[in-house]
């Protein structure tokens, strides 16, 4: 395994699912979509929601608190909040992408570089 990485066995995460993991002293979200694995901060940059409790559709993760959406592939913002209060939230908190982490498959391990 690569120095500075954290590993999860590939059979511990099914296609179309995600899980909260701890690596490098941080809470991260690891997701599998098809044969690809993605790793991002588990905390929504909008209001700190636990993304592992959100909804995953393809590579899009939706925060359970205010429905902000991010693309796991590169962390970019798809939607910054939703609902009647969303214009106010956009003024108070400017859209910020999710931090992403490099992922490599090493044998039967998903290595997350932190």
Uncertain residue ranges: none
Q: Compute the gyration radius: what is it?
A: 14 Å
Number of domains as seen in the coordinates:
1
**Helix-strand sequence:** EEEEEEEEHEE
Strand line-up across the major sheet: 1-10-9-4-3-2
- Identify the CATH architecture: 3-layer Sandwich
Question: How confident overall, as mean pLDDT?
Answer: 87
Oligomer: single chain
The fraction of residues assigned to DSSP E strands is 35-45%
**Main sheet characteristics:** 6 strands, antiparallel
Residues in helix, %? under 10%
Look at the structure and give the CATH class.
Answer: Mainly Beta
Distance between the termini: 13 Å
Shape verdict: globular
Q: Count all strands and give the number.
A: 10
* Annotated CATH topology: Rieske Iron-sulfur Protein
The CATH superfamily appears as: Rieske [2Fe-2S] iron-sulphur domain
Compute the number of helices. 1
Describe the structure.
With 114 residues, the protein is mainly beta. It has one domain: Rieske [2Fe-2S] iron-sulphur domain (Rieske Iron-sulfur Protein), CATH 2.102.10. The chain has one helix and ten strands. The strands form two sheets. A six-stranded antiparallel β-sheet has the order 1-10-9-4-3-2, with no helix packed on it. A four-stranded antiparallel β-sheet has the order 5-6-7-8, with no helix packed on it. A hairpin with a 2-residue loop joins strand 9 and strand 10. The chain is globular and about 45 Å long. It starts with a strand and ends with a strand. The mean pLDDT is 87.
């Amino acid at each position: 395994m690569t120095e500075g990485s954290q590993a999860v066995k590939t059979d511990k995460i099914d296609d179309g699912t995600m899980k909260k993991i701890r690596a490098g002293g941080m809470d991260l979200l690891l997701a599998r979509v098809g044969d690809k694995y993605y790793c991002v901060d588990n905390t929504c940059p909008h209001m700190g929601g636990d993304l592992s409790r959100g909804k995953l559709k393809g590579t899009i993760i939706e925060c359970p608190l205010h429905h902000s959406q991010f693309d796991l592939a590169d962390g970019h913002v798809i939607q910054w909040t939703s609902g009647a209060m969303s214009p106010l939230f956009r003024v108070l908190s400017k859209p910020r992408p999710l931090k992403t982490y490099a992922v490599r498959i090493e044998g039967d391990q998903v290595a997350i570089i932190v």
